Amino acid sequence: MNDSKTALIRPAGEADVAAITRIYRHHVLCGTGTFEIQPPDEVDMLQRLQRVMQRGLPWLVAERGGDVAGFAYANWFREREAYRWTLEDSVYVDALQRGQGLGSALLQQLLLACEAQGARQLLAVIGDSANESSIALHLRHGFTRGGLMPAVGWKFGRWLDVVMMQKALGPGATDPPTHGA
Ligand SMILES: CC(C)(COP(=O)(O)OP(=O)(O)OC[C@H]1O[C@@H](n2cnc3c(N)ncnc32)[C@H](O)[C@@H]1OP(=O)(O)O)[C@@H](O)C(=O)NCCC(=O)NCCS
């Protein structure tokens, strides 16, 4: 069932940090979508949120029934200046609320926010080639597979691939960047 219509997608604020930290903690400890091993605490997560916001980039949450049930943000893909119009997304949904359209609702709004900010390419650097939900989510939103980096992560006693997916935003590469980052 897709009941994402009942979710409110809105910009994250500092009051959401506890819920974001809780949601992400599960995926760090139990999943291969992120290659982090130690979950960040709320202080660390607040710094991550502030860094993204200071860069003028979007960090969104999905709120359902008054509770934060997922989050998505975009950050610079790499620090060096020529990468400035290329962002990387992150999308995480509460483990108990996956498969209900929240990830899709978050990514849809994130795409719009990244485009409005002037970004030209959005990358998904997906942990684990067996990460069917993330690959399906990105395919659903028009991302194409850019490549596979085999066995670049070691977590839970096995080597993990990274799947690179990419979507052009706005005019993409058809003209030079005009505004934004
Ligand atoms: C990946 C993730 C964000 C997707 O969010 P979600 O709310 O579970 O996904 P949705 O319900 O919005 O589904 C989005 C699309 O993917 C499909 N999908 C979701 N889970 C799937 C699965 N396990 N297998 C196949 N397809 C799947 C849905 O059918 C839907 O496609 P459709 O609109 O064509 O039907 C979420 O599952 C998650 O938090 N995963 C763990 C963390 C992670 O890997 N994050 C990504 C890091 S890049």
**What is the straight-line distance between the termini?**
38 Å
Fourth-level CATH superfamily: Gcn5-related N-acetyltransferase (GNAT)
Number of strands: 7
C-alpha Rg, in Å? 16 Å
As for the number of domains, it is 1
> How much is the average pLDDT?
95
Low-confidence stretches: none
Shape summary:
globular
Architecture, according to CATH? 3-Layer(aba) Sandwich
Give a written overview of the molecule:
- The protein has a 7-stranded mixed β-sheet, sandwiched between helices.
- The protein is an alpha+beta fold and 181 residues long.
- It is globular and about 40 Å long.
- 29% of the residues lie in helices and 32% in strands.
- It has a single domain (9-168), classed as Aminopeptidase.
- Coenzyme A binds at residues 27, 31, 33, 90-93, 98-104, 124, 126, 131-134, 136-137, 140.
Short note summarizing the structure:
The protein has 181 residues and is an alpha+beta fold. It is 29% helix and 32% strand. The radius of gyration is 16 Å and the shape is globular.
Write out key terms for the chains shown:
181 residues, alpha+beta, Aminopeptidase, 4 helices, 7 strands, binds coenzyme A
